[in-house]
Amino acid sequence: MMTPEQYIESLRNQKKEVYFMGERVENVVDHPAMRPHINAASVTYKLGTEEKYEELGSATSHLTGNKINRWTHIPQNQEDLVKKAMMLRVAGQITGTCFQRCVGMDGLITLYSTTWEMDQDLGTDYHERFKRFLIETQNHDYMTDGAMTDPKGDRSKRPSEQHDPDLYVRVVEEKEDGIVVRGAKMHQTGAINSHQILVMPGTAMSPKDADYALSFTVPADEKGVIYVFGRQVNDSRKWEGKIDQGNAKYGVVGGEALIIFEDVFVPWERVFMYKETQYTGKLVDRFASYHRQNYGACKAGNLDVLIGATASLADMHGISKAGHVKEKLAEMAHLVETMYSGALACSFNCSKNGCGTAFVDPVLANSSKLNTARYYPEVTKLSQDLAGGFVATLPSEQELDNPRIAPYIYKYYSTGENVDPIDRIKMGRLVENMTGSTPIIECMHGAGSPQAQKVVIQRSINWGEKIKFAKEIVKDAKEQNEVLQ
């Protein structure tokens, strides 16, 4: 396993084609817009290698028996799924933001079981290919970008019906030794600081969409792979200073990027699905359940930080003993624990696939993510309520170096003899960072929008069984009434 320092240094050896704000970025490691996200991802290596966290952050590979990072592990039982959720909350508490490695982790888990089923049904050798790739990933502790979301174009049309055939990743040429692919994946968390890209279909497909039913992997710096790093609200603060960033070390959300595949060659050994459209829906649903398990845990960890910042400001403002403040803080904690309980519940109430992989309860996993999308904004609203309006009107940290203005900043942002006004400003900026539009939108749409979870719940619930429960109660009541008469 790599240490955080080794992970960061490993990125220096890559030759990715990355663009940001109109220019090519040759060094992503030291770029001020990207380094905080790299620092956040490095925490996944911290959890795997430091003794304090290794019970959660490491695991034993069921393939090799080696000690590996849990972010590359295939869960074998209930304990593995529970530890996964617990690990995500701890990582969220350390970073206060997205640590980016979850999508790749869930992609590995999903492809492991899906390729096994394909081989069982079709006599293919996808699973053996995937196992070799997985062992390499585990042995080198590679960070994997799980690439699922296509540009999609007109959402009312299938991939093969789009006005532009490249709006979903597709095969454009088949060769003796592999395939050539073209298209793009959007909103890719941690893409610019991953070692490899694991592409998966982004929707269930029909036989007409066969050219789009693809899963494969390529090195992150493969020729023809192009990255366009996305902008975030207030991101220019990253190269203007430290205090105004709010979370200078770890940033906000996951440093998402657009990945363009410009006729990229993929050898057959790295292809894990090729035109088997009948398995695309199963793969997407399975991946979604694993990934939606995560949100109740990782966002709970993030919001633990926000609750701490809010409580700290309440102390600084002298209102921590007020009844309504205590009530609102308790409500914040209640909502967070409700989110987390869903992540644990779907882990405890698990099942096993045919290949032995532990699978979360899909209804509970989707319910957990739906709760998270609903409760996360409520917690941020309560934080803004308690923190106060000063969060939205703070002057620039540059004023602290202005001899004319600095004394007044210290004077008027002080709330008491024992309160450092700079500490108050830092906490205010952290609240601003964590309750702004970027993290709320990401929480809403990451792992699928709330409507996606509702669809899964609606089609997964056994409505007939629930009706039967009610009819039995009514029947028993009727029989009891007859007895009494």
List keywords for this structure.
485 residues; alpha+beta; globular
Strand order of the largest sheet: 2-1-10-11-7-6
Structural class assignment? alpha+beta
Give me the number of helical elements: 14
Uncertain regions spanning at least 5 consecutive residues? none
**Net shape:** globular
Tell me the major beta sheet. Answer: 6 strands, mixed
Taking the alpha carbons of the first and last residues, their distance comes to 74 Å
Strand content: 5-15%
| CA-based gyration radius | 24 Å
- Integer average pLDDT: 96
Q: Give the proportion of residues in helices.
A: 40-55%
SS elements, strand count? 14
- SSE order, as H and E? HEEHHEEHHHEEEEEEEEHHEEHHHHHH
Layout: helices, strands, pairs:
Elements: H1 4-10, E1 17-20, E2 23-25, H2 35-49, H3 54-57, E3 58-60, E4 67-69, H4 78-95, H5 102-122, H6 126-140, E5 144-147, E6 170-175, E7 178-188, E8 196-199, E9 214-219, E10 225-229, E11 257-267, E12 271-274, H7 280-316, H8 323-348, E13 351-352, E14 358-359, H9 362-387, H10 406-412, H11 421-435, H12 437-445, H13 450-460, H14 463-484
Parallel strand pairs: 1-10, 5-8
Antiparallel strand pairs: 1-2, 3-4, 6-7, 7-11, 8-9, 9-12, 10-11, 13-14
Helix pairs in contact: 1-2, 2-4, 4-7, 4-8, 5-6, 5-7, 7-8, 7-9, 7-11, 8-9, 9-11, 9-12, 9-13
